[in-house]
Design a protein that fits this description.
heterodimer; A: 620 residues; mainly alpha; two-stranded antiparallel ribbon; 74% helix; globular; B: 100 residues; Helix Hairpins
């Protein structure tokens, strides 16, 4: 019990427990302190686990489930992948907890909020560290629940609770596939222990089955990570408080799908087909979401589509076999996307809950620190040369191109195109929000909100140095560390300068084009926009995917349930029951006349009955 | 020696008289008497059977029957007294509270 993993997990759970049981009685400051301190402690414990690591280790806390040939202890597997991930999750969570103290300063539901946030951190760390798939699934569903509860945090606002339910139901579809994959893996390998499954994968799983399992895992991951075709819940999830969007729907939970694929990479990589499908799904999703982000008016929706798009890159990295590059991008994305969301939260609160980017403007001088932080996040997202986002995105793209086959070359080209759109849409936001003429004057914000952006801004700018590629004089420490920890080694890249050159010019072009359209010559943009309003509508409705689902899936469901309700339940079941009841009542009325209350009648009927019985027996 | 069939005919006639008495009379006391007559007709048939096949069970049965008849009458008469107290009547048709 003295292993750091105990504290990593237990502290947020204790925090959640205290705030759940006694939070409503405690003063606001105490609730905030407990929540932040427990996550901070968890972060320190995770750092200690990272520092004290000498090879992968399994820690079993107690026997959780055990029957027949099945056993799933409450055990945790600490290897390079899970511990670095735990450090990132707890670190980002800690910063967002601090930010939340400022953001939720006027909200009455602070105890419920911090309780759910702590519970989320516990579930997420449980998902990250679990040594078997059964326990991982508990964390997986735990984060899903917290996400649901926090999206619908302001459940009295019409539509917000629906958004929570939508997220819950859509991710459930992926979870069914994931559940099937777990059972199938247990059937094949005889255990749900992740290291054991990975070790047995090549000997126990036939090639054809491996493709199916890979695709099932992909479906589960796609649900959680909002990849096509299950993207629709994430834009709606923006109904939750902005720190929740930053923590759950940008930095941690939505990357759980990618993490799952990395965790089971030895299984997934058995099938080249599955890998190609993963890469294609990631690439198409990232392109789709980037185009959708281009036409959004809601600041948070832009960031939501941007998240979907960036996770698409991570899927593409996994599909190209570059796990460490993908994890690198996951980290960097967690930093800059949490930063962008927190910056957006600052802007939205300062402008009295204004979400429309066209109604903002001129905030550069009025909110200089927020501007600088948001700008560094935007630069990292646009993969401007030298920022963390540049290195990580570049590694994924290089890995995709180095994969060799023609398919991956096409994916690479699409990835570069997406990178261009990414730079364009995020700088569209930057220029509209910070450069345009001022339309409203911002309120003052609590200092803790603004200052908690700074560490993330630093990480977004220089965090790439932990894995800077060799040709920039970097040491690729993260990759080397993961490789030492047993993660499949990254491909040796060829043509790296070429890819970096293309990526850099694409990113600069995107930013330049955004500058041209939104600052230098807005008149031209307005003319073009008037001509292309059809396309803009198409993009802003996210290719009408949500409308299509509403029509096909929800419409069919409503129709079928309407039929079952009005026809089957109303006509068949209700009517047959009513008919039976009416028949019995009629029979009762009819038979009532037989009950005279006169003893002589009864006696006569007894006698007649007895005589009839006697006659029957005498006859036979 | 009286033939077995004669005794059975006598028992049958007695039983039929009891049935008619129960069915026709309205007085509770007369109905109780009818029941007694039917019981005794059955007893008579039992005794005749016991004699016919030379087995004692029939006579034992009759002893039980008498005991039962005695207790039945005592309960029955108690009920009659109670009913009479309620409505000052022993006519069964006056007690038709169970009419549906």
């Amino acid at each position: 019990m003295d292993h750091p993993v105990t504290y990593i997990l237990l502290l947020p759970l204790i925090g959640a427990f205290i705030n759940a049981v006694a939070g409503w009685k405690m003063p606001r400051r105490a609730v905030e302190t407990i929540a932040c301190a427990s996550v901070g402690g968890s972060f320190i414990a995770a750092c200690m686990a990272l520092a004290g690591m000498d090879g992968a280790a399994s820690v079993t806390l107690y026997d959780w489930l055990s029957f027949g040939g099945f056993s799933a202890p409450a055990g945790f597997y600490l290897d390079a992948l899970s511990v670095t991930m735990a450090v990132m999750v707890s670190g980002v969570s800690f910063i967002i907890h601090l930010y939340s103290v400022g953001y939720m300063r006027e909200d009455k539901g602070y105890a419920r909020y911090f309780m759910l946030l702590n519970l989320f951190v516990f579930s997420m760390l449980n998902l990250v560290l679990a040594s078997n798939l059964t326990l991982l699934f508990v964390g997986w569903e735990g984060v899903g629940f917290c996400s649901y509860a926090l999206i619908g945090f302001w459940y009295t606002v019409p539509g917000y609770a629906t958004a929570g339910r939508k997220a819950f139901i859509v991710t459930r579809i992926g979870d069914v596939a994931f559940g099937v994959a777990i059972i199938w893996l247990f059937y094949l390998a005889g255990t749900t222990d992740i290291p054991a499954i990975n070790a047995l994968a090549s000997s126990r799983i036939p090639a054809a089955t491996a493709t199916f399992i890979g695709l099932l895992l992909l479906s589960g991951a796609a649900g959680k990570s909002a990849q096509l075709p299950l993207t629709v819940w994430l834009p709606d999830a923006m109904a939750g408080p902005t720190p929740v969007s930053a923590l759950i729907h940008a930095a941690t939970m939505v990357t759980a799908g990618v993490y799952l694929l990395m965790r089971l990479f030895p299984v997934v990589s058995l099938s080249a087909t599955a890998l190609s499908v993963i890469a294609v799904v990631g690439c198409v999703t990232s392109f789709y979401a980037a185009t959708a982000a281009l036409a959004q008016h809601d600041l948070k929706k832009v960031l939501a589509y941007s998240t979907i798009s960036q996770i698409g890159y991570m899927f593409m990295g996994v599909g190209a076999g570059a796990v460490s590059s993908s994890l690198f991008h996951l980290f960097v994305h967690a930093f800059f996307k949490a930063l962008l969301f927190m910056g957006a939260g600052c802007i939205i609160q300062a402008l009295d809950e204004e979400h429309d980017i066209h109604k903002m403007g001129g905030l550069m001088i009025r909110m200089p620190l927020v501007f600088l932080c948001f700008l560094s996040g935007a630069l990292a997202l646009a993969a401007a040369p030298g920022t963390a986002g540049f290195f990580s995105k570049d590694e994924i793209l290089t890995a995709t191109l180095s994969n060799g086959s023609a398919l991956y070359v096409v994916l690479w080209a699409m990835g570069e195109l997406t990178a261009f759109i990414t730079a364009l849409y995020i700088f569209r936001v930057v220029f509209l929000v910070f450069r345009d003429e001022p339309k409203a004057s911002p309120k003052r914000l609590p200092r803790i909100m603004v200052y908690s952006l700074v560490p993330l801004a630093m990480l977004a700018l220089v965090g790439g140095l932990i894995n800077a590629p060799a040709n920039w004089g970097g040491t690729e420490r993260l990759s080397a560390y993961l490789e030492w920890g047993g993660v499949a080694p990254a491909l040796k890249f060829s043509r790296q300068w070429l890819v970096q050159g293309v990526s850099a010019s694409v990113s600069v072009c995107g930013i330049a084009m955004a500058y041209y359209m939104y600052v230098y010559n807005p008149a031209w943009r307005k003319k073009a926009a008037a001509r292309l309003s059809g396309i803009a509508g198409f993009l802003s409705a996210a290719w009408y995917l949500d409308a299509l689902y509403n029509k096909v899936v929800v419409g069919t469901y409503v129709m079928v349930s309407g039929f079952l309700w009005k026809k089957v339940d109303g006509l068949v079941i209700d009517r047959s029951l009513d008919g039976t009841a009416a028949g019995i009542a009629g029979a009762g009325t009819g038979l009532r006349s037989a009950v005279t209350g006169r003893a002589s009648t009864y006696i006569m009927s007894v006698i007649i009955g007895a005589a009839a019985m006697l006659a029957y027996f005498a006859w036979s | 020696m009286v033939p077995f069939s004669h005794i059975l005919i006598l028992a049958g006639i007695t039983f039929a008289l009891g049935v008619v008495c129960v069915a026709v009379r309205r007085n509770i006391l007369m109905i109780l008497i009818g029941v007694e007559i039917m019981l005794n007709a059955a007893g008579l048939a039992f005794v005749a059977g016991s004699m016919r096949w030379g087995m004692p069970e029939g006579q034992i049965f009759v002893l039980f029957l008498m005991a039962m008849a005695a207790s039945e009458v005592s309960v029955g008469l108690a009920l009659v007294v109670y009913l009479h107290k309620r409505k000052r009547s022993v006519d069964v048709d006056d007690f038709s509270d169970m009419k549906g």
